[in-house]
Design goal:
37% of the residues lie in helices and 22% in strands. It is of the alpha+beta class. The protein is elongated and about 160 Å long.
């Protein structure tokens, strides 16, 4: 072998070893890097990878459902969607931006201006409470930076019929009025959180685990019966419209439990339409508005007289000559009724008669009974904004005030307070606490008068519905009714307004064994009819008559029943 061949062979060997060494160094470097990435930088790389694929998303929870006593929904949470943008990441060159603008009922120029207003922002609402159908259309566009989240919208199936009780929530689902506000802590939902994996288009491809469970709100079952609520609403609205009145209220209570079976007001509004939520229509007048109850409290004055032991239903009272002076004030009846018994005082609604009864009693007798019946104090029903009314303390020398208090002037009550006070007359002298929440077990009632006194006064109140009384139009065919009319002047800044009235009727049925107590108040009826017996009594008749039939309460005033009772009495 020549020297050149040896030299060439040695050169090739040296280059081969150099290549092998370089390859070995590269392999060692790659292995070292892999070990470094796997051992030393694994946590960092995992975090960076997760940051690009893993997201913590909110899991919406629905607010508690509000139902009537029969399970009919009054407030429910319907699924909707929130459309929002991340301006910093939104693709402003996307071909579907025009379609997005059209779906949002705007134009592309305005949408781009909104997104470009502050590109550093990470959250921008585009539309709240969108329909699920619209949400799916927007989601299908797959525009980077545009997101669709699920949420819930409050919906009220009975609308204006129950709105003064139920109230409404704001866009964020927080109670603003009514029981939605009163029971906010009970009804509210607490959204959960979930860890998910998303692809580069922001779509969820895998649910990893639950970070925080969603807590749905608690349900509430109200005491009202939606059937009776609709009936009461229809009759009250018709009367307010027929008499061109400013407003009105109707409250219907269950005598045995004190539960509110219906509570309606006029004017009303549809809570599903935010444009109708005007201040004049929002308040629950049956709980917030106070008025002088007028003649509707005369049965309580008579009850106080009977409780004193000085009087019986047959006791005679001289009301001649149809008026009397108490200090500087003249108290008048509609006409001179002459000498009448205590029962006729109720029948004819004699101001002179109840005044003479009241002034003959110890000074605190009438006022204390009013207080025990719940007048001038909150009912404890838990409704936001409930008025307490006003019941003055009177001494022996305040004769005028004692006189006017006996026939319903000088104090103020709400329709609910007046209805609560009638529970004692309907339930043989005991009163159950009123409630808007259905009671599985009735609370223990409180006795405020002897049972025989309540029954005697109830019998007197039946004469108000007779042809001789002021409340003939409150009669319900087939049923005995006991009640009392009332008409008072409205109070203005300068005192009583001569040509503006409040018309009432308060009563119970069936009178033989009362199941329902109902109070009707009509505010400022205009026209020829304005007395309680003309305006409020017919509403009572129609609402209570319908309720008795819906509740399958047997009649107690059929001729056949009277004949059978007479035969039994003769045996």
């Amino acid at each position: 072998m020549s020297d050149e061949s040896v030299t060439a062979e040695a050169g090739r060997g040296w280059r081969l070893w150099l290549v092998l060494v370089l390859l070995l160094l590269v392999a060692v470097g790659i292995t070292a890097r892999m070990l470094s990435l796997y051992v030393e930088e694994q946590a960092f790389l995992q975090t960076q990878g997760d940051a690009r694929t893993l997201r913590t998303v909110q899991v919406p929870a629905h607010r508690g459902i509000i139902t009537d006593r029969n399970g009919e929904p009054l407030a429910v949470s319907a699924p909707v969607a929130t459309i929002w943008a991340d301006p910093a990441k939104t693709d402003l060159q996307h071909a579907s931006l025009g379609k997005l603008a059209a779906l949002l009922k705007t134009n592309k120029k305005k949408l781009l201006a909104k997104l470009n207003q502050d590109r550093s922002r990470r959250f921008l609402y585009l539309q709240r409470q969108a329909t699920p159908e619209l949400a799916e259309q927007i989601r299908a566009l797959r525009i980077k930076g545009i997101h669709v989240d699920r949420e819930y919208k409050r919906y009220y199936p009975a609308a204006e019929v129950t709105t003064h009780l139920v109230g409404f929530t704001n866009l964020d689902g927080k109670g603003q009025e009514g029981l939605e506000l009163a029971y906010e802590d009970w009804l509210k939902a607490d959204a959960g959180k979930q860890l998910v994996m998303k692809d580069r288009l922001g779509r969820t491809i895998k649910h990893i685990n639950e970070v925080k469970p969603a807590q749905h709100g608690n349900d509430i079952e109200l005491s009202i019966d939606l059937r009776l609520q609709y009936l009461a609403y229809r009759e009250l609205k018709a009367a307010v419209q027929a008499h061109n009145a400013d407003g009105g209220s109707l409250v219907m209570l269950d005598v045995a439990t004190g539960e509110v079976l219906a509570m309606v007001n006029q004017p009303s509004y549809n809570p599903n339409d935010p444009r109708q939520r005007v201040s004049n229509a929002l308040r629950n007048r049956a709980l917030t508005d106070t008025f002088e109850p007028g003649s509707t409290v005369k049965p309580m004055t008579v009850a106080a007289a009977l409780m004193s032991g000085q009087y019986s239903p047959e006791s005679m009272v001289d009301t001649s000559p149809g008026y009397m002076k108490v200090k500087r004030k003249t108290i008048r009846d509609h006409r001179n009724y002459g000498e009448i018994d205590v029962s006729t005082i109720i029948t004819k609604s004699s101001n002179v008669g109840v005044t003479k009864l009241s002034l003959s009693l110890p000074e605190g007798s009438v006022r204390n009974l009013y207080h025990n019946l719940g007048l001038g104090q909150a009912t404890g029903i838990g409704f936001p904004g409930e008025s307490t009314g006003y019941l003055p303390y009177l001494n022996e020398r305040q004769l005028i005030e004692r006189a006017t208090l006996s026939y319903g002037y000088g104090l103020s009550v709400t329709p609910l307070q007046l209805a609560q006070s009638y529970l004692a007359l309907a339930n043989d002298g005991v009163v159950s606490p009123v409630s808007l929440i259905r009671q599985n077990e009735a609370e223990k009632p409180v006795r405020v008068m002897p049972a025989h006194v309540a029954r005697e006064v109830r019998e007197m109140m039946e004469t108000v519905i007779s042809v001789k009384g002021t409340g003939r139009r409150a009669a319900v065919p087939g049923y005995r009714v006991a009640g009392k009319t009332g008409t008072v002047h409205k109070v203005g800044r300068g005192g009583y307004i001569d040509d503006q009235y409040l018309s009432f009727f308060a009563g119970m049925a069936p009178a033989s064994d009362p199941r329902l107590v109902t109070v009707v108040m009509v505010d400022n009826p205009k026209g020829q009819e304005y007395y309680g017996g003309e305006v409020a009594a017919p509403v009572f008749s129609r609402a209570v008559g319908g309720a008795l039939r819906l509740m399958n309460i047997p009649p107690d005033d059929w001729p056949e029943l009277k004949k059978a009772d007479k035969q039994i009495a003769q045996r």
